[in-house]
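We emphasize that the prediction below concerns an isolated chain of 552 residues; any contacts that depend on oligomerization or on bound cofactors are therefore not represented. The input was used exactly as deposited, without trimming of termini.
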Amino acid sequence: MYRVLVIGLDAAGLDLIEPWIAAGYLPNIARILRNGAYAPLRSTIPVMSPPAWTSMITGLNPGKHGVFDFVRLLPGSYRLYSTRRDQTTYRTIFDHASAHGRHVIAINIPITYPPAPVRGVMIAGLGAPRNGRLAHPPELEVELRRWGYRSDMDVAFAPGKEQEWIVDLQHVTRVQTDAMLRLLKREPWDLAMLVYRAIDEVETYFWHHMDPGHPQHDPEQAKLYGSAILKVHRLLDEEIGRLLEVVDSDTVVVIASDHGGGPAHKEVFLNVWLEQQGWLVRRRGHPLNEWRKQMMRRLHLTSDHLAPILDFPLAWRIRNLIPQRLQHALVPESFVTLADVVDWSRTRAYSFGNIGQIYVNLRGREPQGIVEPGAEYERLLDEITEALYSLTDEGHPVVDAVYRGRDLYTGPYSEYGPDLNIIMRGMAYVTQSWRETAGNQIFSASGTYYTGIHRPLGMLAMSGPPVAAPGSLPEVQIVDVAPTLMWLMGLPIPDDVDGRPLEEMIADERLGTPAFIHVEQATGPLAPRATWTDSAQERDVLARLRELGYLE
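Result of the prediction step, given as a C-alpha cell string:
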C-alpha cells in the first residue's frame, strides 16, 4: 500500500514544539503537523528510551519484549549489565515487514544491537558498542566508515566544553542524515526509520539554561546557552527538510518521539530510604576482605579488566563451572555496586535503575530472595507504597504516583520488570543507575551534570495521502504506533500487539479494516549471559551510558 518514512526525535514534546512552530522557528515540522494529524504520545513506564522505543517498534508492552531500562540484572546475580536486543525474544515491525517481503531501512534506533538480519538495512543505535558490528548487511560497515558515519558523539560533556560538545552533536546529527539520504536514494524500501537523539542529549545538559525556575539556572550562563535547546530543534527541522526533499508525495511521513523532556531538580537515593525503613540491610564486610578488594581495584584485577584477557573457550568453560556468587565474591568490579554493599540474606526490597524503581527480593526469582511469593509479597508492596506516599522533602510530599508492575506489564518477561514504579515531583526528582549506593541521604542535588530528564508525553504526527487532516487529536499510546504503520503498509497485524491502529488519523477507504493474524507469543526465560557481558564491548557500552548521564 503506502511507503512510510518514520523520523524519530528522541525526547521531543509538543509543549516545546507547538510554541516554536507558532513563532516560525520550525517550518518543516509545522508543514507535517498542519497537513496531517498529530497527538501527544504517552510513553512506557519507566519513561526511558529502551522500553519506549522497543514498545514503539513492536506494539508490545515491556512485559512482552522484556526491555525495561538501560541495564538489567545478570541472571543468577545482583550484578547490573547493559540491555541488548538478543537477551529476549520479540518481533519488531522491521522483522514483520521483512517476513512479508517488504524492504526496510532502520538507522540509529536504540536497543537494536546486534542488528537483526532484516530484508534491507539495519544500523544499530544507542546501546551498541563502538567496536561492535553496527550494520546489517555486514559489508555496509566499510561504507559507513567511508561516509564518516557515527552513532555516538566523541566529545563527552563537561562544564567548559559546552561549545565543543554542541559542535560535535551537530556533526553527528548531520552525518546520520547523510547516511539516510544515501540509503533512501540507493536501496529499495517500503519502511524507513531514522532516530535522532540530539534533543534528548541537549535537554539533559542544557535545560537549566533555558529554565529560569531551575535551581541551577545562572542568568549569565543563560546568555550563552539559553537558546541551545531551541537551536537543536531548528537543526533537526533543517535535517527533516533534507529528508522530505527525497521522498515522493505518496509517502506517509511520520514524526514520533519516545517521550518528552523537562527539568531535573534533585536526585533520589531510594536505597537509603529503604535502609532507613528497615527493608534493606547493608553488608558489613570483613576488614581484610574489603582491603583485598580495594587493592585488586587499584591493581586493575577486576572482572571488567580481566574478562577480555580470559575471553577464550577454555576460560569460559572453567568460569561456567564456578557459581556466579563465588565469582563475584573473589573478583570485584571496578566500581562499588549494589551487589557489593547489600546483605541479601536480610534485605526484602532494593532499588536500581533510572527514574524510580523498586524490586522485591523475591524467593524463587532473585538468587538470594527471602520474601515469599503470595501474601507476604503483596503485604510488603502495600507497606512500601503507603510509606512512599508519606515521603517528604522540605516539608512537602515527593511521590505523585506508585504503579505496580502487575498493573503495567503482561507477558513472558513481566516478572523481570520493577515491582513498583515511582513518579516523584512530576519526574523532577529521579533515581539514577549505578548511583544506587552513592551518598548517605535520601535527596541531593544531582551528582552528575544532567539538569533535564524525561517526561511521559512525547508526540506522534503523520502526513501523506491516506492521513486525515484533523490537526490536533487526543492523547494516544506508544504501542499504537507499530500496528498503525503495519496497517498503512497493508500488512496483517499480529494479534499479540497491545496497541491499536489509529483509525482516527486515517481517511483512506482503500486500506480497509485493519486485518489481524494469530501469532505465537514469544516465551522463554531471559537469554543466558552473553559472551561479551564482561568484555571490552560491555565496558564500552557502560562508559557511553555514563557519558549520557544514564549511569554513573
